[in-house]
Amino acid sequence: MITVAHVLGLPGLGLEAVVEGDTGAAVSWVATSELADPTPYLEGGEIVLFTGIDSAVRRRSWPDYARRLAGRGVVALGMGVGEHLSYTGVPDPLAQACREAGLTLFRVPERTPFLGIIRAVADMRAAQERTDLEAMLSMQRALTRAAVGADGPALVLRSLASQLEGSWVAVCTADAEVVRQSGPPVAVLPSDRTLGELVGRLRSARLRGSLSESGPRGSIAIHPLGVQGTPQSYLVVVLPRPFERLEVAVITTAVALLSLHAERAVEQALFRRRIRAGALSLLLSGDVRSADALLAVAGTGSWSATARRVRVVRLRGGADQLQEGIRRIEAYVDRTSRPVLAGTPTAEASGEESAAVLLEDLPDQLAELRGVVELSGLRAGIGGAADVHDARTSAREALEALERTSARHRIGAWEDAVAGGIAGLLPPGTGRIYAQELLRPVREREDGGERLLPVLRTFLTHNGNRRQTAAELGIHRNTLLQRLQSIEQALGRSLEDPQVRAELWIALQLAGT
Protein backbone atom coordinates (compact mmCIF):
# COMPACT_ATOMS: atom_id res chain seq x y z
CA MET A 1 0.00 0.00 0.00
CA ILE A 2 1.37 3.42 -0.99
CA THR A 3 0.70 6.07 1.66
CA VAL A 4 0.91 9.84 1.74
CA ALA A 5 4.04 9.49 3.90
CA HIS A 6 5.66 7.35 1.17
CA VAL A 7 5.01 10.05 -1.44
CA LEU A 8 6.29 12.84 0.79
CA GLY A 9 9.45 10.84 1.37
CA LEU A 10 10.25 10.32 -2.32
CA PRO A 11 13.92 11.31 -2.83
CA GLY A 12 14.94 14.16 -5.13
CA LEU A 13 11.49 15.79 -5.34
CA GLY A 14 11.81 18.22 -2.44
CA LEU A 15 8.23 17.77 -1.22
CA GLU A 16 7.70 19.53 2.11
CA ALA A 17 4.70 19.02 4.41
CA VAL A 18 2.98 22.21 5.53
CA VAL A 19 -0.04 20.59 7.25
CA GLU A 20 0.09 16.94 8.30
CA GLY A 21 -3.27 15.21 8.28
CA ASP A 22 -3.53 11.43 7.98
CA THR A 23 -0.19 10.68 6.34
CA GLY A 24 -0.86 6.94 6.66
CA ALA A 25 -3.81 7.14 4.25
CA ALA A 26 -3.55 5.01 1.11
CA VAL A 27 -2.88 6.82 -2.17
CA SER A 28 -4.83 5.57 -5.19
CA TRP A 29 -3.41 8.03 -7.74
CA VAL A 30 -2.03 11.56 -8.29
CA ALA A 31 -4.21 14.06 -10.19
CA THR A 32 -3.60 17.65 -11.32
CA SER A 33 -6.39 20.22 -11.52
CA GLU A 34 -6.72 23.98 -11.43
CA LEU A 35 -10.51 23.85 -11.19
CA ALA A 36 -12.21 25.63 -8.33
CA ASP A 37 -14.09 22.36 -7.68
CA PRO A 38 -12.42 19.26 -9.12
CA THR A 39 -14.38 16.81 -6.94
CA PRO A 40 -16.83 15.67 -9.70
CA TYR A 41 -13.81 14.18 -11.50
CA LEU A 42 -12.30 12.41 -8.49
CA GLU A 43 -13.05 9.01 -6.94
CA GLY A 44 -11.32 9.34 -3.56
CA GLY A 45 -7.84 8.38 -2.41
CA GLU A 46 -6.09 10.83 -4.77
CA ILE A 47 -3.38 13.39 -4.15
CA VAL A 48 -4.39 16.60 -5.96
CA LEU A 49 -1.67 18.91 -7.34
CA PHE A 50 -2.35 22.54 -8.31
CA THR A 51 -0.64 25.94 -8.62
CA GLY A 52 -3.53 28.28 -7.82
CA ILE A 53 -3.72 30.02 -11.19
CA ASP A 54 -7.23 31.31 -10.46
CA SER A 55 -5.97 33.13 -7.35
CA ALA A 56 -8.83 35.63 -7.10
CA VAL A 57 -11.34 32.83 -6.69
CA ARG A 58 -9.03 30.84 -4.41
CA ARG A 59 -8.54 33.65 -1.88
CA ARG A 60 -12.24 33.92 -1.17
CA SER A 61 -12.93 30.16 -1.03
CA TRP A 62 -9.96 28.32 0.56
CA PRO A 63 -12.15 26.86 3.40
CA ASP A 64 -14.82 25.57 0.99
CA TYR A 65 -12.14 24.25 -1.37
CA ALA A 66 -10.39 22.25 1.38
CA ARG A 67 -13.66 20.94 2.82
CA ARG A 68 -14.84 19.74 -0.61
CA LEU A 69 -11.60 17.88 -1.26
CA ALA A 70 -11.59 16.24 2.18
CA GLY A 71 -15.25 15.31 1.82
CA ARG A 72 -14.54 13.61 -1.51
CA GLY A 73 -11.83 11.47 0.07
CA VAL A 74 -8.79 13.29 -1.29
CA VAL A 75 -5.85 12.27 0.93
CA ALA A 76 -3.48 15.19 0.30
CA LEU A 77 -3.15 18.49 -1.55
CA GLY A 78 0.14 19.53 -3.14
CA MET A 79 0.70 23.18 -4.14
CA GLY A 80 3.36 24.18 -6.65
CA VAL A 81 5.09 27.39 -5.51
CA GLY A 82 7.94 29.52 -6.87
CA GLU A 83 8.92 32.84 -8.38
CA HIS A 84 7.42 32.06 -11.79
CA LEU A 85 4.18 30.55 -10.41
CA SER A 86 1.03 32.13 -8.96
CA TYR A 87 2.34 31.84 -5.40
CA THR A 88 5.88 32.02 -4.10
CA GLY A 89 4.77 30.21 -0.93
CA VAL A 90 1.77 28.39 0.48
CA PRO A 91 -0.84 30.98 1.61
CA ASP A 92 -1.54 30.96 5.33
CA PRO A 93 -5.37 30.97 4.77
CA LEU A 94 -5.03 27.80 2.67
CA ALA A 95 -2.89 26.12 5.35
CA GLN A 96 -5.46 27.06 8.00
CA ALA A 97 -8.32 25.76 5.84
CA CYS A 98 -6.53 22.39 5.31
CA ARG A 99 -5.74 22.17 9.02
CA GLU A 100 -9.44 22.62 9.87
CA ALA A 101 -10.46 20.06 7.23
CA GLY A 102 -7.86 17.51 8.40
CA LEU A 103 -6.31 17.50 4.93
CA THR A 104 -2.56 17.00 4.42
CA LEU A 105 -1.01 19.95 2.53
CA PHE A 106 2.51 19.96 1.11
CA ARG A 107 4.69 22.35 -0.90
CA VAL A 108 6.00 21.39 -4.35
CA PRO A 109 9.09 23.41 -5.37
CA GLU A 110 9.05 25.04 -8.78
CA ARG A 111 11.89 22.84 -10.00
CA THR A 112 9.81 19.69 -9.47
CA PRO A 113 7.43 19.01 -12.36
CA PHE A 114 4.06 17.55 -11.45
CA LEU A 115 4.68 14.86 -14.06
CA GLY A 116 7.73 13.76 -12.08
CA ILE A 117 5.55 13.14 -9.01
CA ILE A 118 2.99 11.24 -11.08
CA ARG A 119 5.72 9.11 -12.69
CA ALA A 120 7.34 8.38 -9.32
CA VAL A 121 4.01 7.22 -7.81
CA ALA A 122 3.30 5.11 -10.91
CA ASP A 123 6.73 3.45 -10.51
CA MET A 124 5.95 2.79 -6.85
CA ARG A 125 2.62 1.21 -7.80
CA ALA A 126 4.26 -0.98 -10.41
CA ALA A 127 6.93 -2.10 -7.94
CA GLN A 128 4.29 -2.80 -5.33
CA GLU A 129 2.20 -4.80 -7.77
CA ARG A 130 5.24 -6.89 -8.68
CA THR A 131 5.95 -7.46 -4.99
CA ASP A 132 2.29 -8.34 -4.31
CA LEU A 133 2.24 -10.73 -7.26
CA GLU A 134 5.39 -12.48 -6.08
CA ALA A 135 4.01 -12.65 -2.54
CA MET A 136 0.68 -14.00 -3.81
CA LEU A 137 2.40 -16.67 -5.92
CA SER A 138 4.49 -17.67 -2.92
CA MET A 139 1.39 -17.92 -0.73
CA GLN A 140 -0.48 -19.89 -3.39
CA ARG A 141 2.42 -22.33 -3.71
CA ALA A 142 2.42 -22.81 0.07
CA LEU A 143 -1.33 -23.48 0.05
CA THR A 144 -0.99 -25.91 -2.86
CA ARG A 145 1.80 -27.83 -1.12
CA ALA A 146 -0.41 -28.06 1.96
CA ALA A 147 -3.40 -29.26 -0.10
CA VAL A 148 -1.56 -32.32 -1.43
CA GLY A 149 -0.49 -33.40 2.06
CA ALA A 150 -1.87 -36.37 3.98
CA ASP A 151 -4.48 -34.22 5.74
CA GLY A 152 -4.95 -31.61 3.04
CA PRO A 153 -7.85 -29.56 4.46
CA ALA A 154 -6.25 -29.22 7.90
CA LEU A 155 -2.90 -28.21 6.39
CA VAL A 156 -4.53 -25.66 4.05
CA LEU A 157 -6.35 -24.15 7.00
CA ARG A 158 -3.13 -23.96 9.02
CA SER A 159 -1.19 -22.45 6.11
CA LEU A 160 -3.89 -19.86 5.43
CA ALA A 161 -4.00 -18.81 9.08
CA SER A 162 -0.21 -18.39 9.14
CA GLN A 163 -0.33 -16.11 6.09
CA LEU A 164 -3.14 -13.91 7.46
CA GLU A 165 -1.64 -12.30 10.54
CA GLY A 166 -3.94 -12.30 13.55
CA SER A 167 -6.62 -14.31 11.76
CA TRP A 168 -8.99 -17.04 12.91
CA VAL A 169 -9.76 -19.51 10.13
CA ALA A 170 -12.30 -22.33 10.28
CA VAL A 171 -14.43 -24.70 8.24
CA CYS A 172 -18.01 -25.18 9.40
CA THR A 173 -20.92 -27.33 8.27
CA ALA A 174 -24.11 -26.02 6.69
CA ASP A 175 -25.49 -25.96 10.27
CA ALA A 176 -22.62 -23.64 11.31
CA GLU A 177 -20.96 -26.35 13.38
CA VAL A 178 -17.19 -25.75 13.34
CA VAL A 179 -15.38 -28.94 12.32
CA ARG A 180 -11.86 -27.50 11.77
CA GLN A 181 -10.27 -24.34 13.10
CA SER A 182 -6.87 -22.68 13.28
CA GLY A 183 -7.11 -21.95 16.99
CA PRO A 184 -9.53 -21.29 19.85
CA PRO A 185 -12.79 -19.80 18.58
CA VAL A 186 -13.14 -16.03 18.66
CA ALA A 187 -15.25 -14.79 21.53
CA VAL A 188 -17.28 -12.35 19.40
CA LEU A 189 -17.57 -12.22 15.62
CA PRO A 190 -17.05 -8.84 13.89
CA SER A 191 -20.79 -8.82 13.22
CA ASP A 192 -23.88 -8.47 15.33
CA ARG A 193 -25.08 -11.84 14.01
CA THR A 194 -24.04 -15.35 15.04
CA LEU A 195 -22.20 -17.71 12.72
CA GLY A 196 -25.42 -19.70 12.31
CA GLU A 197 -27.30 -16.60 11.16
CA LEU A 198 -24.56 -15.61 8.71
CA VAL A 199 -24.33 -19.09 7.16
CA GLY A 200 -28.12 -19.29 7.07
CA ARG A 201 -28.19 -16.17 4.87
CA LEU A 202 -25.94 -17.91 2.32
CA ARG A 203 -27.49 -21.36 2.13
CA SER A 204 -30.29 -20.48 -0.28
CA ALA A 205 -27.74 -19.02 -2.73
CA ARG A 206 -25.80 -22.31 -2.69
CA LEU A 207 -22.40 -21.95 -4.41
CA ARG A 208 -23.23 -18.50 -5.80
CA GLY A 209 -23.29 -16.79 -2.42
CA SER A 210 -20.48 -15.46 -0.27
CA LEU A 211 -20.33 -12.87 2.49
CA SER A 212 -17.84 -10.21 3.58
CA GLU A 213 -18.49 -7.74 6.37
CA SER A 214 -16.31 -5.19 8.18
CA GLY A 215 -16.86 -3.22 11.34
CA PRO A 216 -15.11 -1.70 14.36
CA ARG A 217 -14.30 -5.19 15.69
CA GLY A 218 -12.72 -6.39 12.44
CA SER A 219 -13.79 -8.26 9.32
CA ILE A 220 -15.35 -11.62 8.49
CA ALA A 221 -15.59 -13.49 5.18
CA ILE A 222 -17.58 -16.67 4.55
CA HIS A 223 -17.33 -18.69 1.34
CA PRO A 224 -19.18 -21.90 0.33
CA LEU A 225 -16.99 -24.90 -0.46
CA GLY A 226 -17.71 -27.27 -3.33
CA VAL A 227 -17.89 -27.53 -7.09
CA GLN A 228 -21.53 -28.36 -7.73
CA GLY A 229 -24.83 -28.87 -5.94
CA THR A 230 -25.56 -27.69 -2.42
CA PRO A 231 -22.50 -26.80 -0.31
CA GLN A 232 -22.06 -28.93 2.77
CA SER A 233 -19.33 -26.76 4.32
CA TYR A 234 -18.09 -23.16 4.43
CA LEU A 235 -14.74 -21.43 4.93
CA VAL A 236 -14.82 -18.73 7.62
CA VAL A 237 -12.04 -16.13 7.96
CA VAL A 238 -12.00 -13.51 10.73
CA LEU A 239 -9.46 -10.65 10.83
CA PRO A 240 -9.05 -7.86 13.39
CA ARG A 241 -8.78 -5.36 10.49
CA PRO A 242 -10.17 -4.80 6.98
CA PHE A 243 -9.16 -7.31 4.29
CA GLU A 244 -6.38 -6.22 1.95
CA ARG A 245 -6.42 -7.02 -1.76
CA LEU A 246 -3.61 -9.59 -1.45
CA GLU A 247 -5.38 -11.31 1.44
CA VAL A 248 -8.60 -11.57 -0.57
CA ALA A 249 -6.68 -13.24 -3.41
CA VAL A 250 -5.07 -15.75 -1.03
CA ILE A 251 -8.45 -16.58 0.52
CA THR A 252 -9.85 -17.17 -2.98
CA THR A 253 -7.05 -19.66 -3.65
CA ALA A 254 -7.77 -21.45 -0.37
CA VAL A 255 -11.47 -21.65 -1.28
CA ALA A 256 -10.61 -23.31 -4.61
CA LEU A 257 -8.31 -25.89 -2.97
CA LEU A 258 -10.72 -26.65 -0.13
CA SER A 259 -13.59 -26.93 -2.65
CA LEU A 260 -11.77 -29.76 -4.41
CA HIS A 261 -11.39 -31.58 -1.10
CA ALA A 262 -15.04 -30.85 -0.27
CA GLU A 263 -16.16 -32.33 -3.60
CA ARG A 264 -14.17 -35.47 -2.87
CA ALA A 265 -15.78 -35.63 0.57
CA VAL A 266 -19.24 -35.30 -1.04
CA GLU A 267 -18.46 -38.22 -3.35
CA GLN A 268 -17.35 -40.32 -0.40
CA ALA A 269 -20.48 -39.33 1.53
CA LEU A 270 -22.62 -40.35 -1.46
CA PHE A 271 -20.89 -43.73 -1.52
CA ARG A 272 -21.52 -44.19 2.22
CA ARG A 273 -25.14 -43.08 1.79
CA ARG A 274 -25.76 -45.72 -0.86
CA ILE A 275 -24.09 -48.40 1.27
CA ARG A 276 -26.22 -47.46 4.28
CA ALA A 277 -29.41 -47.35 2.21
CA GLY A 278 -28.66 -50.81 0.79
CA ALA A 279 -27.90 -52.20 4.26
CA LEU A 280 -31.17 -50.74 5.59
CA SER A 281 -33.12 -52.45 2.82
CA LEU A 282 -31.49 -55.78 3.77
CA LEU A 283 -32.17 -55.26 7.48
CA LEU A 284 -35.83 -54.49 6.86
CA SER A 285 -36.10 -57.70 4.84
CA GLY A 286 -34.63 -59.66 7.76
CA ASP A 287 -31.22 -60.36 6.20
CA VAL A 288 -29.02 -59.01 9.00
CA ARG A 289 -25.96 -61.01 7.99
CA SER A 290 -25.86 -59.57 4.48
CA ALA A 291 -26.48 -56.07 5.86
CA ASP A 292 -23.50 -56.41 8.20
CA ALA A 293 -21.32 -57.63 5.31
CA LEU A 294 -22.34 -54.63 3.18
CA LEU A 295 -21.67 -52.18 6.00
CA ALA A 296 -18.21 -53.68 6.46
CA VAL A 297 -17.38 -52.46 2.94
CA ALA A 298 -17.99 -48.89 4.11
CA GLY A 299 -16.08 -49.44 7.35
CA THR A 300 -19.24 -49.31 9.47
CA GLY A 301 -19.67 -51.58 12.47
CA SER A 302 -21.96 -54.62 12.61
CA TRP A 303 -25.55 -53.90 13.60
CA SER A 304 -26.08 -57.36 15.04
CA ALA A 305 -23.15 -56.77 17.41
CA THR A 306 -23.70 -53.11 18.38
CA ALA A 307 -27.47 -52.59 18.32
CA ARG A 308 -29.72 -55.34 19.62
CA ARG A 309 -32.81 -53.16 20.07
CA VAL A 310 -33.72 -50.79 17.25
CA ARG A 311 -36.49 -48.54 15.99
CA VAL A 312 -37.55 -47.61 12.49
CA VAL A 313 -38.69 -44.06 11.80
CA ARG A 314 -40.55 -43.13 8.64
CA LEU A 315 -40.02 -39.56 7.43
CA ARG A 316 -42.30 -37.76 4.99
CA GLY A 317 -42.24 -34.30 3.40
CA GLY A 318 -41.23 -32.32 0.33
CA ALA A 319 -38.14 -33.38 -1.60
CA ASP A 320 -36.06 -30.47 -0.28
CA GLN A 321 -37.28 -31.01 3.26
CA LEU A 322 -36.42 -34.70 3.13
CA GLN A 323 -33.01 -34.00 1.64
CA GLU A 324 -32.35 -31.50 4.42
CA GLY A 325 -33.50 -33.99 7.06
CA ILE A 326 -31.25 -36.77 5.73
CA ARG A 327 -28.34 -34.33 5.56
CA ARG A 328 -28.81 -33.48 9.23
CA ILE A 329 -29.03 -37.17 10.13
CA GLU A 330 -25.81 -37.91 8.24
CA ALA A 331 -24.10 -34.98 9.98
CA TYR A 332 -25.15 -36.52 13.31
CA VAL A 333 -23.75 -39.89 12.24
CA ASP A 334 -20.43 -38.37 11.19
CA ARG A 335 -20.25 -36.32 14.38
CA THR A 336 -21.03 -39.13 16.83
CA SER A 337 -20.15 -42.32 14.88
CA ARG A 338 -23.46 -43.79 16.04
CA PRO A 339 -25.01 -46.54 13.87
CA VAL A 340 -27.87 -44.78 12.08
CA LEU A 341 -29.06 -45.81 8.61
CA ALA A 342 -31.11 -43.62 6.25
CA GLY A 343 -32.90 -45.14 3.27
CA THR A 344 -33.31 -43.83 -0.26
CA PRO A 345 -36.23 -41.37 -0.62
CA THR A 346 -39.19 -42.68 -2.61
CA ALA A 347 -41.88 -40.60 -4.33
CA GLU A 348 -45.50 -40.88 -3.17
CA ALA A 349 -48.77 -40.26 -4.97
CA SER A 350 -49.28 -37.05 -2.95
CA GLY A 351 -46.16 -35.52 -4.52
CA GLU A 352 -44.23 -35.83 -1.27
CA GLU A 353 -41.34 -38.18 -0.62
CA SER A 354 -40.67 -40.56 2.26
CA ALA A 355 -37.69 -42.45 3.61
CA ALA A 356 -37.02 -44.93 6.40
CA VAL A 357 -34.41 -44.40 9.11
CA LEU A 358 -33.08 -47.14 11.40
CA LEU A 359 -31.53 -46.21 14.73
CA GLU A 360 -30.76 -47.68 18.12
CA ASP A 361 -33.49 -47.64 20.74
CA LEU A 362 -31.75 -44.95 22.80
CA PRO A 363 -33.38 -41.80 24.24
CA ASP A 364 -30.65 -39.45 22.98
CA GLN A 365 -30.92 -40.76 19.42
CA LEU A 366 -34.72 -40.42 19.44
CA ALA A 367 -34.37 -36.87 20.80
CA GLU A 368 -31.86 -36.03 18.06
CA LEU A 369 -34.17 -37.37 15.37
CA ARG A 370 -37.15 -35.44 16.75
CA GLY A 371 -35.01 -32.31 16.54
CA VAL A 372 -34.20 -33.09 12.89
CA VAL A 373 -37.91 -33.44 12.13
CA GLU A 374 -38.71 -30.11 13.75
CA LEU A 375 -35.87 -28.22 12.04
CA SER A 376 -36.55 -29.71 8.60
CA GLY A 377 -40.34 -29.32 8.68
CA LEU A 378 -40.95 -33.05 8.12
CA ARG A 379 -43.54 -35.43 9.52
CA ALA A 380 -42.41 -38.65 11.18
CA GLY A 381 -43.84 -41.93 12.40
CA ILE A 382 -41.78 -43.71 15.07
CA GLY A 383 -42.11 -47.48 15.22
CA GLY A 384 -41.90 -49.48 18.41
CA ALA A 385 -38.68 -50.97 19.76
CA ALA A 386 -37.78 -54.33 18.22
CA ASP A 387 -34.93 -56.80 17.96
CA VAL A 388 -32.62 -55.94 15.06
CA HIS A 389 -33.66 -59.22 13.38
CA ASP A 390 -37.30 -58.09 13.53
CA ALA A 391 -36.81 -54.51 12.28
CA ARG A 392 -39.52 -55.01 9.65
CA THR A 393 -42.14 -55.07 12.44
CA SER A 394 -40.98 -51.67 13.67
CA ALA A 395 -41.09 -50.46 10.04
CA ARG A 396 -44.78 -51.42 9.72
CA GLU A 397 -45.54 -49.71 13.01
CA ALA A 398 -43.66 -46.58 11.88
CA LEU A 399 -45.79 -46.38 8.74
CA GLU A 400 -48.97 -46.77 10.80
CA ALA A 401 -47.83 -44.02 13.16
CA LEU A 402 -46.91 -41.77 10.22
CA GLU A 403 -50.44 -42.04 8.78
CA ARG A 404 -51.76 -40.51 12.02
CA THR A 405 -49.61 -37.38 11.77
CA SER A 406 -50.78 -34.02 10.48
CA ALA A 407 -49.45 -30.55 9.79
CA ARG A 408 -50.25 -29.67 13.41
CA HIS A 409 -49.05 -32.92 15.02
CA ARG A 410 -46.04 -33.81 12.93
CA ILE A 411 -44.60 -36.65 15.02
CA GLY A 412 -46.49 -39.84 15.82
CA ALA A 413 -45.21 -42.74 17.92
CA TRP A 414 -46.45 -46.33 17.83
CA GLU A 415 -46.63 -46.42 21.65
CA ASP A 416 -49.07 -43.50 21.62
CA ALA A 417 -51.30 -45.30 19.14
CA VAL A 418 -51.23 -48.49 21.22
CA ALA A 419 -52.05 -46.53 24.37
CA GLY A 420 -55.32 -45.52 22.72
CA GLY A 421 -56.40 -49.17 22.39
CA ILE A 422 -57.67 -50.95 19.29
CA ALA A 423 -59.69 -47.89 18.29
CA GLY A 424 -56.52 -45.85 18.15
CA LEU A 425 -54.91 -48.30 15.73
CA LEU A 426 -57.65 -48.14 13.13
CA PRO A 427 -57.38 -45.54 10.34
CA PRO A 428 -59.65 -42.65 11.38
CA GLY A 429 -61.80 -42.74 8.23
CA THR A 430 -62.23 -46.51 8.27
CA GLY A 431 -62.97 -46.47 12.00
CA ARG A 432 -65.77 -43.91 11.67
CA ILE A 433 -67.44 -45.83 8.85
CA TYR A 434 -67.20 -49.05 10.85
CA ALA A 435 -68.76 -47.42 13.94
CA GLN A 436 -71.58 -45.78 11.98
CA GLU A 437 -72.55 -49.05 10.27
CA LEU A 438 -72.46 -51.12 13.45
CA LEU A 439 -74.48 -48.63 15.53
CA ARG A 440 -76.87 -47.55 12.77
CA PRO A 441 -79.62 -50.14 13.60
CA VAL A 442 -79.60 -48.98 17.23
CA ARG A 443 -79.85 -45.30 16.25
CA GLU A 444 -82.75 -46.02 13.88
CA ARG A 445 -84.67 -47.76 16.66
CA GLU A 446 -84.70 -44.75 18.93
CA ASP A 447 -88.16 -43.15 19.34
CA GLY A 448 -90.35 -41.51 21.94
CA GLY A 449 -87.39 -39.84 23.63
CA GLU A 450 -85.87 -43.17 24.47
CA ARG A 451 -82.10 -43.07 23.99
CA LEU A 452 -80.60 -46.50 23.60
CA LEU A 453 -76.96 -45.62 22.91
CA PRO A 454 -76.33 -44.07 26.38
CA VAL A 455 -77.92 -47.18 27.86
CA LEU A 456 -75.60 -49.37 25.81
CA ARG A 457 -72.50 -47.36 26.81
CA THR A 458 -73.38 -47.49 30.51
CA PHE A 459 -74.13 -51.23 30.29
CA LEU A 460 -70.76 -51.93 28.68
CA THR A 461 -68.95 -49.64 31.11
CA HIS A 462 -70.22 -51.77 34.00
CA ASN A 463 -69.22 -54.94 32.12
CA GLY A 464 -72.84 -56.12 31.77
CA ASN A 465 -73.83 -55.59 35.45
CA ARG A 466 -77.54 -54.76 35.18
CA ARG A 467 -78.02 -53.60 38.77
CA GLN A 468 -75.17 -51.05 38.57
CA THR A 469 -76.33 -49.94 35.11
CA ALA A 470 -79.91 -49.31 36.26
CA ALA A 471 -78.67 -47.44 39.33
CA GLU A 472 -76.44 -45.13 37.33
CA LEU A 473 -79.15 -44.44 34.75
CA GLY A 474 -81.76 -43.92 37.50
CA ILE A 475 -84.30 -46.30 35.93
CA HIS A 476 -86.08 -49.45 37.09
CA ARG A 477 -84.37 -52.75 36.39
CA ASN A 478 -87.32 -53.91 34.24
CA THR A 479 -87.08 -50.75 32.14
CA LEU A 480 -83.39 -51.46 31.63
CA LEU A 481 -84.14 -55.02 30.53
CA GLN A 482 -86.66 -53.74 27.98
CA ARG A 483 -84.14 -51.30 26.52
CA LEU A 484 -81.39 -53.91 26.36
CA GLN A 485 -83.83 -56.22 24.59
CA SER A 486 -84.57 -53.44 22.06
CA ILE A 487 -80.83 -53.07 21.42
CA GLU A 488 -80.43 -56.83 20.86
CA GLN A 489 -83.38 -56.87 18.48
CA ALA A 490 -81.93 -53.95 16.51
CA LEU A 491 -78.52 -55.62 16.25
CA GLY A 492 -79.81 -59.14 15.75
CA ARG A 493 -77.11 -60.25 18.21
CA SER A 494 -76.94 -61.07 21.92
CA LEU A 495 -75.23 -58.73 24.35
CA GLU A 496 -74.10 -61.77 26.31
CA ASP A 497 -71.58 -62.51 23.55
CA PRO A 498 -68.12 -61.12 24.61
CA GLN A 499 -67.17 -60.54 20.96
CA VAL A 500 -70.30 -58.43 20.42
CA ARG A 501 -69.57 -56.39 23.55
CA ALA A 502 -65.99 -55.74 22.44
CA GLU A 503 -67.06 -54.62 18.97
CA LEU A 504 -69.75 -52.33 20.35
CA TRP A 505 -67.37 -50.77 22.87
CA ILE A 506 -64.84 -49.99 20.13
CA ALA A 507 -67.60 -48.56 17.91
CA LEU A 508 -68.81 -46.30 20.71
CA GLN A 509 -65.23 -45.07 21.25
CA LEU A 510 -64.80 -44.30 17.56
CA ALA A 511 -68.17 -42.60 17.32
CA GLY A 512 -67.60 -40.57 20.47
CA THR A 513 -71.08 -41.40 21.63
Q: Describe the sheet with the most strands.
A: 7 strands, mixed
Can you count the helices? 19
What is the structural class?
alpha+beta
Helix content: 40-55%
Mean pLDDT value: 84
Which geometry do the CA atoms define? elongated
Q: What is the terminal-to-terminal distance? A: 85 Å
Per DSSP, what share of the residues sits in E-state strands of 2 or more residues?
A: 15-25%
Q: Gyration radius, to the nearest Å?
A: 40 Å
| Number of DSSP strand runs | 17
Q: List low-confidence stretches.
A: none
Characterization of this structure:
This protein has 513 residues and is α+β, with helices and mostly antiparallel strands. Helix content is 51%, strand content 17%. It is built from 19 helices and 17 strands. Strands 11, 12, 13, 14, 15, 16 and 17 form a seven-stranded mixed beta sheet that branches. The protein has a five-stranded mixed beta sheet with strand order 1-5-4-3-2. A five-stranded antiparallel beta sheet has the order 7-6-10-9-8, with helices on both faces. The chain is elongated, with a radius of gyration of 40 Å. The mean pLDDT is 84.
